[in-house]
Each structure stands twice: as structure tokens, then as C-alpha cells.
Amino acid sequence: MSSKVYPLQFDAILKERIWGGEKLKTILNKPITSKITGESWELSTVDGDVSVVANGAYKGKPLTELINEFPNEILGTAVYKRFGNQFPLLFKYLDAREDLSIQVHPNDELAKARHNSFGKTEMWYVMQADADARIIVGFKEDSSSEEYMENLNNKTLTNILDGIKAKPGDVFFLETGTVHAIGAGLVIAEIQQTSDITYRLYDFDRKDAQGNTRELHVDLALDAINYKKVDTYKEYNKEVNKSNTVVDCPYFTTNFIPLEGEKAVANSGSSFVVYMCIEGSFELEYDGETHKYIKGDTVLIPAAMKNYDLKGNASVLEIYIS
Q: Which of the residues 23, 98, 174, 318 has the least number of beta carbons within 10 Å of its own beta carbon?
């Protein structure tokens, strides 16, 4: 692959959701045609939703095929050794016109046993927030399955959950087991393990266009929930032209780069790198070529790309596996 290695972009996989809106188009330039588009899957190998290359020599090729052909060059030596040909992360942008359901994700052990899947540790970066937009992250105080079920049955679950006002630049890190919900009026960049396993606890009794309520997973969730109070909010530095660590966990590392000018990057080849442009625009110079990105773009840097330069005025999330 060395002769054709270059930054890879992918066609957005757009998802209509009952809670979705139109901000993915107005704010992030996504080619949506629906007024209820809730998600843009930027980089995915979930079955049935595999990303397809949108640029360059490999245009039209599914990411899974590219990984099978060039596993070390795409994934990186350490990632390939740990995960084989699986791409272990999923990247999304979300637009919540309405509140999302209150939900929880199982850990690796439960997800493997029940669904032959990874668990779903994730993080949110708030890109845009309407006035008074809020999120739910865990319990206000340590709880129990009994208290949880009592409030769920009484439709008072939100009384014992921690609702936090969210503003642009906020980061929340949600380990598996954390009960959560993205509130109305938020656009979020989400980084997570490759998993589409969600246990829906409560959906505010709303109905879809056909008058149907969405399935709940109350029984499955009981032993997946962490009933302890958790701290999900992440403080982080914003030193210019530096990779400022935001989240560093076994599943991914996310850095925040306030780019003002130029930053040289040197990678070891052990992991791929993903950049999400969350504000402004920047260029990536590699091997005599310049690649341009704007707000809402996501780009996969194959592990074989070891030295390149970032230039511009932008806020960028940088993600890899340590």
C-alpha cells in the first residue's frame, strides 16, 4: 500500500431518527434530505453499515475490504495484533432535535455473551448547544436496582438521574453501564467502540409516525447498569498547536488540537489516527500533496502515514488507540 497511502474519507451513512433534525446539514454540511436525520456515521464497520471510501485511488471500496487487504498499513501493527481485522471504533455526528431515549450500553463481557459484540464505551464532544440544552449522565446519588425499577414504573426515572446543562466544548466520557441520554438542542461528535448494542430504558412514551412506541429493554438492562454516581465531565487543556489529552482509556485516546498555524505530526505506525474537524478548516500536507478539510469532515489516517503536517485555523479531535 505504500505507493498509494493517503488520508481516507468516507461517504456519510445517514440515519433517520424519531428525535433527529436538520442541523447535520445546516451546521455540518451533510447531504441530508430528511427533516429527521439524527446521525451521520462517519467511519463504521458495523454489519450492514460499512463505510465506503469517498476519495482517491480506493474510492468506492468498503473499509472492511481495505483492512483485509492492508491490515497493518491501515490499522497499525499494535491495533492489528490486538483486534485482528476488526476496526474497533465507530465515529458519528448526532443532531438531537428532541430528547433521545434514556439508555445504557453493556460492557464487553455482557455484550460478548449476549450479542457477540464489543461493549460500548463512548465519549461526547458538544459541538453546538441551544440555550438550556441538557444531557443525562448517570444517577444523582448512588442508587439500586430496586429504586431504579420503582422510578421507572412510576415514570419518575428522571427524578433520580443527573441532568447537566451542556455547552459547546464540553466533553463527557461514558463508561459502559452509565445510564444516559442526549437532550434536545445538541449537536455532538461521538467516539465509541464498534458496537450498535443499546438497551433502551425509557422513551418518554412517544410514538412514531405509525403510532408505535419503540421497544424497551428493561430486563436486559438491569444487570448492565452501574447504579453508582459517576463523574463523566472531562476537563482538558487547550494549548495551541498541541495534542491536549481529553480522554485516555483502554479503547481509545482522544486529544483536542486548537490549530492556529502549523503542527508537525510523527506517528509510530502502531495505530491509525482519525481527525474530526469540529470548527474551522485545515489542510494536511503529506508526500507533496495537500488535502483540505472543513467543519464536519472526518478523515482516517492509515498507520503507514507516519509523518505529515497540519495547517490552518481549526479545532480538531485527534483519535487513536494507545
A: 98
Strands laid side by side in the 161-165 sheet = 161-165, 134-139, 180-182, 102-104, 199-202
Q: What are phi and psi of 80, to 5 degrees?
A: -65, -40
Q: Which residues are annotated as a binding site for Zn(2+)?
A: 105, 122, 180
Return the pLDDT at 208: 76
Residue 318: its H or E element: strand 307-320
Q: Distance between CA atoms of 77 and 84, rounded to whole angstroms?
A: 10
- Fold adopted by 244-320: Jelly Rolls (2.60.120)
Q: Which residue of the set 17, 200, 206, 214 is catalytic?
A: 200
206 is a catalytic site residue: no
Instruction: For domain 13-221, say whether CATH 2.60.120.10 is its number.
Output: yes
Average pLDDT score, the chain:
95
Pairwise pLDDT comparison (275 vs 214), residue with the higher score:
275
Q: How many CB atoms lie within 10 A of CB 276?
A: 26
- The full set of domain ranges for the chain reads 13-221, 244-320
Cell numbers given for 228:
453508582
Predicted confidence at residue 2, as pLDDT, reads 47
Q: Give yes or no on whether 13-221 and 244-320 have one common fold.
A: yes
